[in-house]
Amino acid sequence: MTRKIAIITGGSRGIGRAIALRLAKSGIDSILTYKTSQVQAGDVVNQIESLGARAVAVPLDVATRDSYMSFAAVARTALEKIGATNFDFLVNNAGIGLSQPFAETTEEQFDEMTHIHFKSVFFLSQTLLPLINDGGHIINISTGTSRFVLPGYSIYASLKTAVEGLTRYMAKELGPRKIRVNVVAPGATETEFRGGFIRNNPQFKKMMEANIALGRVGQADDIAGVVNALLSDDCYWVNGQRIEASGGQVL
């Protein structure tokens, strides 16, 4: 049986790291990207290989569209290293956090967030289309705050909402190639995101947990399990959908 291969942006830490490791347990090889944390990325590669899967870490700044074509060329070389010419799954996960009141958000912040959270999903996916196998699957990572509102997340959540709309169009237009496209929207999740804000702020974490039906914030592995399930053949008929993984937050 031919092994499946995933490209995971922002795969050196947090949810991206957890996804790469969870897929490795399912026998899926990975090309994971990182922006600055080469040592962390190398550690993830070593962990993946210890699980019996193959992995390559490649630098990529998703905020810079000019880098996408060069990344595609590097990805071709990385695929050759793991014995393939194409890949099967793309997980658009890379991102940064911003908590800023609407009235105080600057144009520079708006532009940076737009490049990272929306423009990169659109154009990186477009650039990699020639390399993704027919019958593949693209998962775009969104946020629970595209459904429920937390003050300070206006630009972040708005851009993720745009990604959710884009996802439906991608699913429709890539359907002839049998490429599925879905959204996974994490709720409050304890990771390094925003400098480990949830993990390092017990009062905020407790406030979040009070609004989650299952009584705790999420862990990166919780999100990774959902992604792994969606990529399986058992979920083949799920397409163009938003799957929220929040433990029942703000029901």
Oligomer: single chain
Spatial shape: globular
Assign the CATH superfamily.
NAD(P)-binding Rossmann-like Domain
Q: What is Rg?
A: 17 Å
Q: Which class best fits the helix and strand makeup? A: alpha/beta
Proportion of residues in extended strands? 15-25%
Sketch the major β-sheet.
7 strands, parallel
CATH class reads Alpha Beta
Average of pLDDT:
95
Assign the CATH topology: Rossmann fold
How many angstroms separate the termini? 42 Å
How do the strands line up in the largest sheet? Answer: 3-2-1-4-5-6-9
- Low-confidence spans: pLDDT under 50, at least 5 residues? none
- For the secondary structure, the number of strands is 9
**Helix fraction by DSSP (H/I, runs of at least 4):** 40-55%
CATH architecture: 3-Layer(aba) Sandwich
Quickly count the helices: 8
What's the number of structural domains?
1
Name the helix and strand elements from N-terminus to C-terminus, one letter apiece.
EHEHEHEHEHEEHHEHE
Give keywords.
single chain; 251 residues; alpha/beta; Rossmann fold; seven-stranded parallel beta sheet; two-stranded parallel ribbon; 44% helix
Structural notes for this entry:
- With 251 residues, the protein is of the alpha/beta class.
- It has a single domain (5-245), classed as NAD(P)-binding Rossmann-like Domain (Rossmann fold, 3-Layer(aba) Sandwich).
- The chain is built from eight helices and nine strands.
- The strands form two sheets. It has a seven-stranded parallel β-sheet with strand order 3-2-1-4-5-6-9, sandwiched between helices.
- Helix 1 runs parallel beside helix 2 (38-50).
- The protein is globular, with a radius of gyration of 17 Å.
